[in-house]
Specification:
Elements: H1 2-66, H2 72-84, E1 88-94, H3 105-117, E2 122-128, H4 134-137, H5 141-149, E3 153-156, H6 160-163, H7 169-186, E4 191-194, H8 205-220, E5 223-224, H9 252-266
Helix pairs in contact: 3-9
Length: about 270
């Protein structure tokens, strides 16, 4: 009996030692697992912060690339609009040339900018004054309405083909100055740009008027969007393939060329 009790005591002692060892090992493992979980959570937090930081850096780099063609003032308002989630109102003002074709070039520009920047950054409003002369267009109610709307950016095609032989180029330039002054008075932060109408084959007087427009832009420090660079030479009959027969505006192919230049300018290409 004593021997049995002695054996049982030994077995119980061994069992207690084994159980204690197992319990201790389980506690150690639990501590290791807990520590690993904390490390993983910390790593996940760091990774999330790194990703967010990288995304911000990527956006900044991307915006820098997109706005590299813009003058400083224009680049700033575009970057601010993207950062704040606000929409930039762009008024495109010109003759009936900007309404021609199945999809006029201002609509193509809107689609191109939406693709590059995302929808909601730019909102383009197309204001056509048809065959109106510049000296009358600047005094129309529609023009005063545009001024009152205080757009952020204005792209003006100043009716050169409409004026052509009827209005002296100096009067056309004066009309541009008057409009710019009125727009700036309504919104001192406005970005004002000018561009020629569409090119035509072998222009004569018209070509000198376009040169005078470019000279005005250079003298006044106004951005000049020379989209003629994107078209065939005016001395090449190929250009007829991009303009309507009555030369009143671009055809669908011409709209593509015109829009491509404007989109490239606003997207750093």
């Amino acid at each position: 009996m004593k021997r049995f009790l002695y054996i049982m005591a030994i077995l119980l002692s061994i069992g207690a030692i084994v159980f204690g060892h197992i319990h201790w090992k389980m506690k150690i493992n639990d501590s290791i697992v807990s520590a690993n979980d904390e490390v993983i959570e910390e790593n996940e937090e760091v990774t999330a912060e790194q990703i967010e930081g990288e995304q911000r850096e990527d956006q900044q780099v991307n915006l820098a690339d997109l706005t590299q063609n813009l003058e400083e003032k224009a680049a700033i308002i575009v970057k601010d609009a993207v950062a704040s989630g606000e929409t930039l109102d762009v008024a495109i003002i010109g003759s009936g040339a900007q309404t021609k074709g199945e999809q006029p070039w201002p609509e193509l520009v809107q689609a191109g900018l939406d693709h590059a920047y995302g929808e909601g950054v730019f909102s383009i409003q197309n204001h056509s004054f048809g065959d109106e002369f510049s000296i009358y267009a600047i005094r129309k109610d529609e023009m005063y309405s545009i001024i009152d709307d205080q757009p952020d950016i204005v792209i003006l095609e100043p009716f050169l083909l409409n004026d052509n032989v009827d209005i002296n180029i100096d009067d056309t330039i004066d009309s541009i100055r008057i409009l710019k002054r009125q727009l700036t008075k309504a919104n001192e932060n406005i970005v004002f740009m000018v561009q020629p109408p569409h090119p035509i084959f072998e222009p004569t007087l018209y070509a000198t008027q376009v040169d005078r427009l470019e000279q005005y832009a250079e003298e006044e420090g106004v951005t000049y969007l020379n989209h003629w660079e994107n078209w065939p030479s005016v001395s090449d009959e190929e250009i007829k393939n991009y303009v309507l027969e009555d030369i009143s505006g671009p055809n669908d192919e011409g709209n593509q060329l015109w829009a491509e230049y404007i989109v490239n300018y606003f997207t750093g290409k």
